[in-house]
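Handoff note, outgoing to incoming analyst
You'll be picking up this chain. Sequence as last confirmed:
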Amino acid sequence: MASAQMRIMGMVTDRNDDPLTGAIVQVRSNATNKMIGFCKTDSKGMFSIEAVTESYLEVSMLGFRKQRIHNLSDERSLRIVMQEEAIALKEVTVKASKVREHGDTLIYNVATFADQNDRNIGDVLSRIPGFEVNKQNGQIKYEGKPISKFYIEGLDMLGDKYGVATNTLPQVDIGSVQVMRNHQPIRVLEDFTYTDEAAVNIRMKEGAKNHWVTSFNGGAGISHRTGLWKFEGFGLRLKSDFQTMLTYKTNNMGLDISKETTSLFNFDESESSGDYIQLSPPTTPNLAESRTLFNRSHAVTLNTLKRFSESSQMNIQVIYNNNRETAEGERRTEYFLPYGNRIIDNRKGYLQKDNELYALMKYERNSTNQYLKNLLSGDFTWSRQWLNEIGSANHNQFARKPEYDIKDNLYIIRKYGNRLVSFYSNNRIISRPQSLFVDSLHQYVSSQRYGTDTYAMGGVKLGRFSLSLKAGVNAALHRIESDLTGLPDTIGLLADNSCFSFIRLYVQPNLTYKTHDISVELSPTTEYLYEYTSDFGQPPHKGFQISPDLSVKWYVTPRLRLLLGGSASVEPLDASRFYHSLILQDFQYINRGYAGYQHCHTQAIRSGINYNDALKALHTILTVSRTFSTSPYTPTRLFVGDYIILSAVEQESKSDSWQANLIASKGISLWNGVVNLRALYLNNDASMLQNGIMTTYNSQMFNIRTGLDFSLWKDMHLRYGFTFNQDRMNGRSSENQQGLLGIGRAVTDEGKAKIQSMDYMQKIDSWKQDLSIVIPVSPFIIDLRGEYYRNEITSGNYKDFFLADIKASYKSKRLDFTLSLNNLLNRDTYSYVITSDLTSSTSVNHIRGRELIMSVFINP
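Most recent structure output, in case you need it:
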């Protein structure tokens, strides 16, 4: 039997005749009560649905009693009035998902990762699989690469100086963190260029918007040397069209807050000029900076952003840093020489005072058809350094090192249909008038660099192909004036006034072929180069050069990506080396410039495997690269009396290097934890002339770091890390017949015999283990930390070193009190060895001893 078809139309309202939107209208069979069809009411409460004669309508909506309509007919429109009905809900527990994926965007729910031990967003991100956070400068890495943008509510207020927000922004006011993979910040380029960069967007809680979000962190304490203090004040106000962030930080507890305001990524950055005067203070790279830095620091930041429309905004940024730093230690440096090693053993005392003022003003218009940005910035630094040395050589050294850096960058991009036209102009002026006093010696050196990189670019998209062409001029003028008094001129020229300039006209085509699975990119850069130096009597150099680059990416699955690429490049000349006088770097090292227009050629092969599943908290990246370099110059090291002269001679040298890098992290939901693994292997072959004798050497470095962070119950944490590092260096010396830059050498026949049979090798191993246990004992939290170091000082001779801290905190909703006892065992010196460039340095440096600190954190 067949039932007659009909169309039922009607309107659903409540008892006040107000239409109900979204009410469910079902057609059900009279015989079986099974649903035959359904629809929803529109914004006016209307519906229309197909039905049969042997059926009825059932209308339902949350909060209303179900209605059934029998005896259907298509001859009239129905009006259905719903009656309100209270509904008793069962008790349910709602758990927010830790990670959600929406296209190329991953959304991390901060509340599901954070606990009451975390204060800022950097604390939370450091425990999320795939993230790495540098607590010193606030830099964020995702899947092994630094992020390209840091947004707050979708706006880029901080630019490349976002580190202060990472270490200060209270995590309790943050709702989620978005990771935008393959992020293209310039909208007009979205259809023309592909990027594999990742950006981070901070989404605040609703209660943290439209009013000031503030936090204060202060503390005081004592050590055997001095009293201690710390204060941090933070204020953030977010409105739909205006953002403001203010911070003030000061401390003498070993926190270098100036690093939070350094540039964390460079975009179209011009080449920087060299730093000729470089005093070498005692440094302890293996320990955390909070254990080694003796400082008095102040930092003030002001960041504002005004949005004029959906696509245009203006930023103003002002930063001031004041820093005083001291260091003490002993260093024994051994130079591996073919005729007998040379050893210098000194005790050092160091003092540095810095003032830095940075200001930026940026206007940006970012729409789908046009992009405009102009950035004007000034960075002014005044630095003074004192270094006193006692031992093999006694010296008092004082240096003034001001630097003035002004930049103006202009970007204009316009889209016409499927074509793209753009104009860029990056301009920079750097001035560095520096001076050094070493006993009776005085070195003055002043360098200025004026540079521009201005180019136009056009592009067109043809199906799966994207073709762009970049053409422009890169030019720079580098001047250097130097004068050294107190040394005899028999060693070399003591004064100079040199100039080096170049003009680079280049064309860079870029062809990209992209499908759903494959991306191929070819970029052969061709350039015409004109180079000229005024001080060596050489004619200008000019010629054509080509540097191709090919990259292939295969998206095997949405989670697995393979990379293979290669390049051949001609390296630009180092403009700062074009002088031929002697420049005193410190009491020991003297640099001599050298001429020559020949360029270093480099070929590189790179490959990578990237497997990531954020929803399963698994991130794995393996990259392997090999680089071959051929340089027309060989670095030289010449020992003349108490001095070491560094330069180069026109003699071809080659280097061959391998690099392998593995980064892996896996979240463990059972323990609410994460396991991390990072391994790095470097292998490099190089050569150097020492007193006219060629020494070839191989250096290898292997570093592996594994860590575990888990929580067995709420707010409890156990963190364990193991680090192993090995440095190897071996070399062989052989005779070189080219002499020593015009300076004779005295090597006896007996010495020559020794040289021909000389081999040496050095291997240094070091281990580190660190353990941290956070135990909540309501209302307190106890934090126990220990670090164990085992460093090889000489072959087979190890030095063990142990550090311990204890911290107790009382935490409430808005107020935290913390009592810390750092370096419980009062270890005040640390020993380590570093090998590089045919030298080995053994250092024993002073570190911060036992310290008792009481601090309070307020988040109003």
